[in-house]
Amino acid sequence: MHKNKSNKVLNTKLDAVSLSLKQSIKNLDSYTHVRGESLYVDDVNIRQGTFHAVVFDSPKAHGKIKHIDYSKAEALEGVERIFTYKDVPGENEIGGIIADEPLFAEDEVHFWGMPIALIVAESEFIARKARGLIEIEIEDLPVITTAKEAKAKGSFINAPRSFSLGDTEKAFAECDYVFEGETFSNGQEHLYIEAQGAYAEPMENGNIKITSSTQGPTAVQATTARVLGIAMHKIEVDVTRLGGGFGGKEDQATPWAVMAALATYHLNQSVKLILNRHDDLRMTGKRHPYESTYKIGLSKDLKILAYQTEFLQNSGAAADLSPAIAERTLFHATNSYYVPNVTTKVLSCKTNLPPNTAFRGFGGPQGMFVIESAIAKAASEIGVSARQIQEANLLDENDTFSYGQIAKKVEAKNTWHSAKNIFNSDALEQEVADFNKNNTAFKKGLSFMPITFGISFTNTPMNHARALVHIYLDGSVGISTAAVEMGQGVNTKMMQIAADVFSIPIDKIKIETTNTTRVANTSPSAASSTADLNGKATLMACNALVERLKLVASEDLNVSEKDITLKDESVFINDKPSELSWTELINSAMLKRVALTENAHYATPEIHFDKTKEKGHPFAYHVYGTAITTVTVDCTRGTYEFDSVKIVHDYGKSMSEGIDLGQVEGALIQGIGWMTLEEIAYNDDGRLLSNALSTYKVPDIFSVPKRVEVIPVETEGNDMAILKSKAVGEPPLMYGIGAYFALQNAIKAFNSNYDLEFHAPMTPEKVLMGLYENKK
Amino acid sequence: MITFILNNKTIKTSEHSGTTLLDFVRYQQRLTGTKIGCREGDCGACTLLVGTLNDDTMEYQSITSCISPLGNAHGKHIVTVEGTNLKHKLTTAQEAMKANYATQCGFCTPGFVVALTGFALSNSENNYSNAIDAISGNICRCTGYKAIEKAAHQVVEKLEHQEKNSFKWLIENGFIPEYFESIPQRLKDIEGKYINQPKGKYVSGGTDLYVQKADHLADNDVHLIAEKDYLKGITIENGICTIGTNSTVSDLWNHTELNSILPNLRKHLKLVSSEQIRNMASLGGNLVNASPIGDMTIFFLALNSDITITNQNQKERHIALKNFYQGYKKFDLKEGELLKEISFKLPTAEFFFNFEKVCKRTHLDIASVNSAIHLSVENDTISEAHVSLGGVAAIPKYLHNTSAFLTGKPLSSETILEANEILQKEISPISDVRGTTDYKRLLARQLFFAHFTELFPNNFTLNDFVQHA
Known about the structure:
heterodimer, A: 6-stranded mixed beta sheet
């Protein structure tokens, strides 16, 4: 009875989602996408005489360069020139946060795949052939591949960071239970299907235009200027769109653009540099592997009283964005839980891997994995379900985060209990228990995964954006912002805002490429904040134009401004259409010499963070949600299939349901991939073994959960979010962490002697070994 | 001259036949809808359709153009995403992708659109499972596939009343543009076979060679054999099944009689790569690749197959497949020799065959361990046994001792447990990116057990083995 009733509720909710998808706006770019007409950097028409470049990189992870012989490569027909650090007119330095990363290696190499030279030739094929003719001699230096090793040797990127709340030491002494342990979460390859690339063209007066597949056009512009030793205004960066980014093109799209520009600078010819997949995998950084230790203390009633961790971040050979990522690990170390006494510490460990970088979640997932592991361990030791501990500690209104922000408009409990009720989790848990009782060759596991994710760049000064809106004299509109379209649908959202404010059809609006000459000094499209920041700026610009146009209309129609609204391509007076159309209004404004262009600047209010005290209010708001994951493990083969992931997600008031659902599903699957199949492997020499798509497996269509149900939680939304529609890019990735614990629960159901290990990803290998370790 | 129809345009080119079809369409013809994702057939972003005229009807198959030699396009109709586009509206497949939010960054999208269009053009039965198979080689990093599943459902729905082999129906229902109707006649007008081939590396489907050495093949002469008739065909005569080594995995998949002999054939082949690759990969290529983990090799080893080898003078010799492999990537094939065909004895009534494969990702992945078994059982006694195991030695391994041990033994859990002891002595797996030694040994045992629980579900359960193992 109870079950039927609940299913009815669920079905009603699912029907509502399905209806909202039908009515929701489609992705603006899908028309050209499905026709193969969207333009990515490698599709842009190139000029006659364009050269093609290939990067020569280090075949060792650490060593002194004793000798390089380029003569055979240079002699190959079709090779134009080979560039090295000696050809850099400005600084041979590309480090963004810390200046510790050369564009080209000079005397030493610090990771396998580190760029040493750029081979420029008539074709990519010739350049690659020439690469094979370069002879290099490297004297080996000791190689560090793990964070632990780096810590032991005192090899760090910067000083450690630490957050604390309450008195952890004292609290541990008062706990009924205290558990300690270790965890490991591996890196993750972004595997944007479009590899890194850029195209540089010489313009007049030594100016250079770069078309780049980057999330951070300003980073490309600034770094190119620095390397070439010229002013930023001489460099124009244009981004059409990205074939996927996921953080991998926030900082690491830069070197390839700079190299292409360097060659253009010297040759005064266009140069294209598109990495092939193997080069991309070998030369670029990934999500950071973390080795962590935790200590968790609970009371008898399962309240987490104290929590302490040390995160060892494997940063790779240079800082890249590692310090910022480390910081976010601390921000999310307690996930959705209120813990009164917390001490967290992170060490960015310098190793001889490619510099690891931003990846959807930006250190947050690594932090959350540890506390979920600690809870799983505690639950197992105490003999309760992890769900009970999770539920007993969910964040509440006005709770304090370890970084001092007071939690407001909290939906942690709301999403948790909604998920339990809507999906009838009691019945789900019973089904799993019954299945496991009746089956030996297959076992099921279920897990809960709540998420709380802060929205804003944690580096407060980065939270700004601009929009440049033109209304052309025929009434059509062009919008430029700092937002880079990479699949997240930000173009569509910008267009929706303008269409809504102007009340004109979407085919009258064009979203322009992202270009540093139209919108300058931008933050990268990252931190899930792109739609918020650029959307607010677009909204401001459109509103300013509307105010001006109302003034024009009030003169033309001789009515008060406050009675005028723009609706359905017309001017309305007191909600009734006038004879004045949108196009006529624009015409009139032109004749009156009213500016039909507006540039607006938005900077997120209220946020601040003091790094000396490690306290503040860094986030505009938080995104919440809860996922319930069910998996079936084949206990003969160690393989598994996810039956379902059932999610209650806090979208706020979603402005584009279809696009936002796509973000939730896509992030979820990427998170599950990180926790299950995707296994980065380096050997002890620092060579990447998972160096091709044949050895690095991302989810395919057969490996995704059979059912994914995402129900929006009903909330008021948040005014800091664009049109109350909350950021959605990163948070749902962390639902994927539930996959690890669902698998663990299934293994336990088969093998009661299984020792809980927290070593992600949970590959079929680890599952099979777990199923049979100490098996009696 | 290599001559073919690319979308609606007849191409005559003297480009090097070993160039990849991808490079030709993208950079020579500027058809940039075909994307480069991995250049090893593992992502599907470069998926194209190849139409072949067979007795007045067109047969379309999807391929990954990054590992396909241009010369193999000769005499075919090659279709890129641009070649599916209608003038001012979306095709049915495109609309399905758009309406269901199945495209985000858009980079993988043309590959999915082409593959789904290929499904509409294909002979496969119209159902959801087949539609998903059609896009099984396409990787999307953005959507998480749930939206793409919905798009596939929509395509299947739209195809509900399809008249098979009718361009007219597909044109009327917005799947393809009108020019398709002119293709059969135009292909007939293309001068016969592409014969003036240089001497050079033999290349059939190219699915492995182009992953290993595309640059070399684009820079040196290749000798394309995919169209050589004497290496083709599947015949079943006098109790023997003979398969030409140029047969693709899809040829096996589509062969009705073979599917009745091996009723689980499609289930097994589904574990072998993606549909795009199955459409290209030749059986012979898999055998001479000599990978210790080659799926088809393991499959045919357990069928106790023989192979026929021919030389340039058409002189033939026969050898058991299990004796073909000599060491890591070493096998009994001399300069100028080609694998011509593989044959196996048709099973008797009490025949049991099973194939198992475990990898990180169940589909489109290389096995950690794979295994096949062929048993004849009479009165609960094993009268004949052939077991093969991949990923556990330098060669694809036929387990001589284990097979011999099983022969004549009662079909019992004791026999199987004892056989596993022998099996473990026959193998020597190494730790690599596909798993540790311990894992591969455990997996070898488990897959060996799995053969019996799969084939004799009434006799054995997992518990019968693991409690005592």
